[in-house]
C-alpha cells in the first residue's frame, strides 16, 4: 500500500473546475515539489492535504485512510508568511507544540516538565540554527530566520507529512540556497514526506525526488474555468535532461500567456 | 530651500511647536479676562487666575462647611470609581464575547447580529430606562457606561480577532491545539493589546456617559459638581474641573499606552514597521 494515494480527485467551486481527475501514488519518504502557474490549483491541492479544503469528488488517502477534514498534528505546514506567532519569542514558538500536548487546559507548562520541554525545543532550534536567537521575537528576525523557525515549529510534532507552501518565495537568492540545504538536511535525517509548492522551476528540480507539474490538459478559450488542472508531468528528479526542463518551462509559459490574454479579454 | 514637507522639527523644536498652541490660548484667555475684569471687577464669565486659585483652595484643600468633606476629592473618587467599574465591565464583556465571536463561527452566527443591533441603540435614550430599573444610585451610572461602550469594544475586538491571519489558527492546529488552546494561546494574547487600544479609544465616550448620568442624578461626582455650580455661573470652579477631567483622561490614556508597550512589545514594534 502506498503512503499516500490520490484517486480521481476533483475540485470545483460552483461552475469553475480547479482540479480535474488527479491521480497519484506517493511512497514513504518521498520529497515532492509541485510547480504550476498561479491559479493552477496547486495550492488547492496542498490545502486538501492540510484538511482545510475538501475534494468535490474522488479520494485522498493517507496510509489507506481518508485524510482528516481539519488540520492535524500528522501534517505540518510552513506558509510563505504568517507561519509563526508574533506574540511569542522564538523559544516559545517552538515550545508551544509541547504545551498544547501536555497542558490541555492551561496551554502552558511549569516546573520540571517545562524544563524538559525547553531542552527539546532548544535542540530543535539548534537543528535549524536558531539557538542564538531563542529570546527574540519574530519581528526581530529576518525573513529566512522566520522560515527556519516555522520549520522548527512544524517538526516538533514529528509529522508524517511536511507541507511547504512557497516557503522561500519571499527570500533573497543567497538565503534561499541556505534554506535549500537546511530542508534537504532535515529531509535526509527524518525521512519525512515533503510536499513543496514553488513557482521556481529550478528550485523544483534541485530539491526533492519527484516533481509534479500542475497544468490544464484541455483549455477552452471561451470558458477558461470549464476545465481544471491535473498533474501533467510526474518526473523522478535525477533522470532529467535539459530538453525536458525546457519543454516544461515552455508549457508553463504558454499556459501563463493564455491566462494573461484571457484576463486582458475580460477587462 | 528644502520643500516644506521634508523639513522635520528637531526634538526640542518639536516640543516647542507642540506647546505653542497652549501658550497662545493661555495668553488669549489672560488678555480677554483682564479686559473684562477691568470693565466689571465682579464679572463671572472669565475669572482671573487668582480666583481660580481661591476656588481650588476652597474646594480641594478645605473641608466643606456643610458636610465636612473635601468636595474636589470626593467628587474625583466617586467619578473615577464609576468610570473604572464601568470600563472594566465593558472591557471584560467586550473581550469575552468579541473573542468568542471572532474565533468560533457558530457563536458568530448567533451573537453577531444582536451585538450589531444593540450597538445601534443610542445609550442616552435608554438612560431613563436604567434609572427606572436600577434606581438613581451607582448601578444605573455604571450601566450607562457599560451599555455605551461595550458594543464598540466588542465589535472592535471581534473584527481584530477575525483579522488575525488564518495561517496562524491552521498552524496551531497542526501543532496539535484544540479549539480552547487556539483561543487562549493564539487569539487571546494577540487581541489583548488591541483591547487596550479599544479601551483607550472608548474612554472619551465613557467620560461623556458618566458626566451625562451624573448631571441628571447624583450626590457627588465631577459631572454633578459642574452642573450644580452652573446655576451660580461659577466659572472659577467649572473651568478647573474641566481641566482636571481632561488631565485625568490624558493620564489614563497615556498610562494605558505605556502598559501596552511594556507588556506587548511585539505589538508596538509591528505597529512601527507598518
Would you write up a description of this structure?
- The complex is a heterodimer of chains A (267) and B (274).
- With 267 residues, chain A is α/β, with parallel strands linked by helices.
- Chain A has 2 domains: 4-74 and 159-266, P-loop containing nucleotide triphosphate hydrolases (Rossmann fold), CATH 3.40.50; 86-158, no CATH class.
- In chain A, 38% of the residues lie in helices and 24% in strands.
- Chain A has helices spanning 42-50, 90-102, 111-128, 143-155, 173-190, 201-206, 242-266, and strands at residues 4-13, 16-26, 31-36, 57-62, 65-66, 75-78, 161-165, 193-197, 210-216, 229-236.
- In chain A, the strands form 2 sheets. In chain A, strands 6-7-8-3-9-10 form a 6-stranded mixed sheet, with helices on both faces. Chain A has a 4-stranded antiparallel sheet with strand order 2-1-4-5, with helices on one face.
- Helices cover 81% and strands 0% of the residues of chain B.
- The longest helix of chain B has 38 residues, at 179-216.
- With 274 residues, chain B is mainly alpha-helical.
- Classes of the chains: A alpha/beta (267), B mainly alpha (274).
- Chain A binds chain B through residues 50, 52, 70-73, 75-77, 79, 81-87, 96-97, 99-101, 104-108, 137-140, 150, 153-154, 156-157, 159, and chain B through 165, 167-168, 170-178, 180-181, 184-186, 189-190, 264-267, 269-270, 273.
Amino acid at each position: 500500500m502506498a503512503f499516500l494515494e490520490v484517486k480521481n480527485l476533483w475540485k470545483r467551486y460552483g461552475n469553475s473546475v480547479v482540479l480535474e481527475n488527479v491521480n497519484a501514488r506517493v511512497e514513504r519518504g518521498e520529497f515532492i515539489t509541485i510547480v504550476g502557474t498561479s491559479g493552477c490549483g496547486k495550492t488547492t491541492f496542498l490545502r486538501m492535504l492540510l484538511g482545510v479544503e475538501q475534494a468535490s469528488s474522488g479520494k485522498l488517502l493517507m496510509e489507506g485512510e481518508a485524510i482528516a477534514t481539519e488540520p492535524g498534528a500528522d501534517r505540518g505546514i510552513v506558509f510563505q508568511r504568517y507561519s509563526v506567532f508574533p506574540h511569542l519569542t522564538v523559544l516559545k514558538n517552538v515550545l508551544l507544540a509541547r504545551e498544547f500536548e501536555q497542558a490541555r487546559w492551561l496551554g502552558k507548562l511549569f516546573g520540571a516538565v517545562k524544563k524538559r520541554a525547553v531542552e527539546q525545543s532548544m535542540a530543535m532550534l539548534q537543528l535549524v540554527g536558531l539557538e542564538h536567537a531563542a529570546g527574540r521575537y519574530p519581528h526581530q528576525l529576518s525573513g529566512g530566520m522566520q522560515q527556519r523557525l516555522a520549520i522548527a515549529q512544524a517538526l516538533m510534532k514529528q509529522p508524517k507529512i511536511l507541507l511547504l507552501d512557497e516557503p522561500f518565495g519571499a527570500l533573497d537568492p543567497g538565503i534561499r540556497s541556505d534554506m535549500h540545504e537546511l530542508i534537504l538536511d532535515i529531509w535526509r535525517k527524518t525521512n519525512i514526506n515533503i510536499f513543496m509548492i514553488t513557482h521556481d522551476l529550478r528550485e523544483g528540480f534541485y530539491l526533492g525526488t519527484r516533481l509534479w507539474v500542475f497544468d490544464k490538459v484541455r483549455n477552452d478559450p471561451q470558458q477558461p474555468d470549464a476545465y481544471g488542472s491535473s498533474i501533467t508531468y510526474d518526473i523522478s528528479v535525477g533522470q532529467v535532461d535539459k530538453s525536458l526542463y525546457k519543454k516544461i518551462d515552455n508549457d508553463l509559459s504558454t499556459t501563463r500567456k493564455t491566462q494573461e490574454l484571457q484576463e486582458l479579454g475580460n477587462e | 530651500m528644502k520643500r516644506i514637507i521634508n523639513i522635520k522639527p528637531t526634538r526640542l523644536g518639536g516640543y516647542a511647536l507642540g506647546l505653542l498652541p497652549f501658550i497662545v490660548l493661555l495668553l488669549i484667555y489672560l488678555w480677554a479676562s483682564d479686559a473684562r475684569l477691568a470693565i466689571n471687577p465682579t464679572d463671572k464669565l472669565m475669572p482671573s487666575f487668582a480666583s481660580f486659585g481661591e476656588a481650588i483652595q476652597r474646594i480641594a484643600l478645605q473641608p466643606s462647611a456643610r458636610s465636612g468633606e473635601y468636595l474636589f476629592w470626593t467628587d474625583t473618587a466617586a467619578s473615577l470609581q464609576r468610570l473604572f467599574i464601568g470600563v472594566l465591565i465593558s472591557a471584560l464583556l467586550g473581550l469575552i464575547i468579541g473573542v468568542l465571536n471572532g474565533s468560533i463561527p457558530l457563536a458568530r452566527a448567533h451573537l453577531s447580529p444582536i451585538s450589531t443591533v444593540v450597538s445601534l441603540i443610542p445609550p442616552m435614550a435608554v438612560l431613563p430606562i436604567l434609572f427606572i430599573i436600577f434606581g438613581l444610585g451607582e448601578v444605573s451610572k455604571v450601566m450607562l457606561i457599560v451599555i455605551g461602550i461595550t458594543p464598540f469594544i466588542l465589535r472592535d475586538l471581534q473584527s481584530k480577532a477575525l483579522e488575525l491571519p488564518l495561517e496562524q489558527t491552521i498552524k496551531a492546529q497542526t501543532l496539535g491545539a484544540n479549539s480552547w488552546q487556539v483561543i487562549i494561546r493564539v487569539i487571546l494574547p494577540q487581541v489583548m493589546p488591541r483591547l487596550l487600544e479599544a479601551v483607550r479609544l472608548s474612554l472619551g465616550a465613557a467620560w461623556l456617559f458618566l458626566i451625562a448620568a451624573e448631571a441628571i442624578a447624583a450626590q457627588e461626582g465631577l459631572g454633578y459638581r459642574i452642573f450644580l455650580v452652573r446655576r451660580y455661573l461659577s466659572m472659577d470652579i467649572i473651568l478647573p474641573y474641566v481641566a482636571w477631567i481632561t488631565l485625568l483622561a490624558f493620564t489614563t490614556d497615556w498610562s494605558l499606552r505605556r502598559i501596552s508597550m511594556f507588556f506587548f512589545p511585539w505589538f508596538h514594534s509591528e505597529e512601527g514597521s507598518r
